Amino acid sequence: MTGPAAVGTEAAGAAAVPAVLDVRGLHTSFRRGRNVIKVVRGVSFRVGRSGSVGLVGESGSGKSITALSVMGLIDKPGFIADGQILLDGGTWSGCPTPS
Questions:
Q1: DSSP per-residue codes, 14-76
Q2: What is the pLDDT, as a whole number, of residue 36?
Q3: What DSSP state is assigned to residue 79?
Q4: CA of 16: how far to CAs of 10, 11, 24, 49, 59, in Å?
Q5: Which of the residues in the chain have pLDDT under 50?
C-alpha cells in the first residue's frame, strides 16, 4: 500500500508566489498500547492562493488522516510525529504536537 498523492493546480508562475498552505514532510502516527503505528509518512504539498489540491489514493492510504492532520483535528491517540504545516508562510499554531 502506498500513501496518498497530492495533486494540485496553481496559477502560472506560482513557484515564485508564496503558498497559502505548505505541508512539508508530514508524519502522523497513532499509539496503540506500547506500539506506535505510522499512518502518514512524509506527505508534502503546496497550495497557492489561486490553487487547489486533491488527495487521491487507495482505500486506507491515509487521505483522511492527512486532511485531518492539516486541519489540526487528530485526536489522541493520534499525533503529528514530524513535519511542518505552514499557513501563509508561518507555522500554523493549530498544529498539534506529540505528547
A1: GGGSPPSEEEEEEEEEEEETTEEEEEEEEEEEEE-TT-EEEEE--TTSSHHHHHHHHHT-PPT
A2: 97
A3: E
A4: 11, 11, 17, 12, 35
A5: 1, 9-14, 98-99
Could you check whether the bond before residue 96 is cis, i.e. omega within 30 degrees of 0?
no
For residue 77 the three cell numbers come to: 491517540
List C-alpha distances in Å: 84 to 2, 12, 15, 35, 53.
Answer: 21, 25, 19, 24, 17
Q: Which residue has the cell 492527512?
A: 66
Q: What's the pLDDT score for residue 50? A: 87
Which residue from 66, 68, 81, 73 is spatially nearest to 31, judged by alpha carbons?
Answer: 81
**Residues 56, 66 contacting (CB under 8 angstroms):** no
